[in-house]
Structure formats: structure tokens, C-alpha cells
Specification:
- The protein is α/β, with parallel strands linked by helices.
- It has one domain.
- About 45% of the residues lie in helices and about 10% in strands.
- It is built from eleven helices and four strands; from the N terminus they run αααβαααααβααβαβ.
- The protein has a four-stranded parallel β-sheet, covered by helices on one side.
- Helix 11 links the parallel strand 3 and strand 4.
- Helix 3 packs across helix 5 and helix 3 runs parallel beside helix 8.
- The protein is globular and about 50 Å long.
């Protein structure tokens, strides 16, 4: 499995492993960026079943907020160079990876349930990130597509999925030009890889969110159960979109 903090906090890897009756290894981490995704796609074995989050954060975060520490990898650096990363960017990432290796693990985290929402660690930066379109966002999206192609060429069976934000942030996102860019990329990905789509809607009456971007333990259980049921039946690549039911009463 690969993803960023949404997947790390949202998917119980051990529970998923028990439900699937197979070992599940995860490279989902807080702040995972497209470099980490490239390393993941290069290291995944041929014919593996892959659970792949398509995070918005990895598309719009600056390089200085990305984790990018999955170890030195020639394929990953070549892909970054081909997608307009500067020599300075590559040196910055290389320095972060001199003494690291891909941190595949069999565990993940979840946050307790609270009635109210906690503030995001970088809440101010989160909202400010929607005020402009990063000039690198299309390069990031191309890298995500390149990683998916590599996994498909390895004959992996992939369940791609999107983890929703809290309705408050979704409403804010609707007012941003980034919303159209995210939607366009989603459709491009579905079309290029000829992905059948499925959707699951969660009820938020009990507050399944820890903060604006992450599930708490209730959301974690719901997401993990939904993914395991789909993975048990997965025979071909598919895109699964999760939605939050908004109660307007």
C-alpha cells in the first residue's frame, strides 16, 4: 500500500492483513511525496496486489513539505528530472536519502474519536495552498501517472482510491481553481487506464474525522472494512472513490 498521512491514519494495515488472509506491507507515511511513490512503484514485486491512494496533498505540497525519504533510487531521480525537477531539487532530495531505505512496514496509526475536530498541524498553510495553482502540479500528476504505468507494466492488480476531506474543507475546495484541476486529473487517470469506477458513501453523524484531512478511529474502521471487501473481490484494476454524506438538516 502507498499513500500519505490520510492513508497512514485511515487504513489499519494489520486489520487489512487479517481480513485478506495475506501479508500487507505499507509505504504510507505522513507527508509522502511523488518521489516516495516512484520508489514504491519500482520496489513492488511483479504481479503484486497494490492499494494505491491518489492524494491531493502529494500533488500540491511544496517539495519542502514532502517527505521524500524512501532511499536513493535511479528510476525515481530519472523520472523527477524528466518532469522538470531542477538540479537543486534533486540534490535536496538526494541529501535526504543518503542514509535511508524504503520503510515498508506492517503497521499504521489511528487517532481516537472525539466529538469535535482537532486543528490540523499546518492548518494555515492548508487553506493558503488553495489560493493559487502551483506551477509544478501538472508535473506531479504526470509522475503519478508514470508510477501507475510502471505498476501496470509489472502486471500488478491495483485498487486506486481517494480519501475524502471533511465537508468543511470540501466546501472550501469547491471555491478554488484547484478543484477543477483535481477533477480533470481524476478523469484523465480513469480514461488513460480504462478504470472501472466504484464509490462508497460514509455517514459522518458520529464524526469520523480527527481533523479536516484525516479520519479518526471510527473512519479508520469504516475505510479499512470497505477496502478489504473490495480487495477480496478484486480481479482487475479499479478506481474507488469515497464520499461523505452531508446532512443539511
Amino acid at each position: 500500500m502507498w499513500g500519505d498521512s490520510q492513508a497512514y491514519q485511515g487504513v489499519n494495515v494489520n486489520k487489512l492483513s487479517l481480513a485478506l488472509k495475506r501479508e500487507v506491507y505499507s509505504l504510507a507515511q505522513h507527508g509522502s511525496g511523488v518521489y516516495d511513490l516512484l520508489v514504491f512503484s519500482d520496489k513492488v514485486p511483479e504481479g503484486a496486489m497494490v492499494l494505491l491512494q491518489i492524494p491531493k496533498g502529494a500533488q500540491k505540497r511544496t517539495i519542502y513539505l514532502d517527505r521524500n525519504d524512501s532511499g536513493l533510487n535511479i528510476f525515481a531521480f530519472k523520472s523527477l528530472w524528466e518532469n522538470n525537477y531542477s538540479l537543486f531539487d534533486l540534490l535536496y532530495i538526494a541529501r535526504n536519502n543518503l542514509f535511508t531505505i524504503p520503510k515498508f512496514n506492517k503497521f499504521s496509526g489511528s487517532w481516537k474519536h472525539h466529538e469535535g475536530l482537532h486543528d490540523n498541524l499546518h492548518k494555515k498553510l492548508l487553506f493558503e495552498s488553495y489560493k493559487q495553482i502551483p506551477d509544478y502540479i501538472f508535473d506531479r500528476q504526470n509522475i503519478i501517472l508514470s508510477s501507475i504505468r510502471k505498476l501496470i507494466n509489472k502486471k500488478c492488480i491495483i485498487l486506486l482510491f481517494d480519501i475524502p476531506f471533511h465537508p468543511t474543507l470540501q466546501e472550501f475546495e469547491k471555491k478554488s481553481e484547484l478543484k477543477l484541476i483535481f477533477n480533470s486529473f481524476e478523469q484523465k487517470m480513469i480514461k488513460e487506464f480504462n478504470l472501472p469506477t466504484d464509490s462508497i458513501t460514509f455517514n459522518n453523524d458520529q464524526n469520523i474525522f480527527f481533523d479536516l484531512t484525516h479520519f479518526n478511529v471510527l473512519g479508520n474502521n469504516m475505510l479499512t472494512d470497505s477496502l478489504s471487501s473490495r480487495l477480496n473481490k478484486l480481479k482487475f484494476n479499479k478506481y474507488l472513490k469515497f464520499k461523505i454524506e452531508v446532512n443539511n438538516n
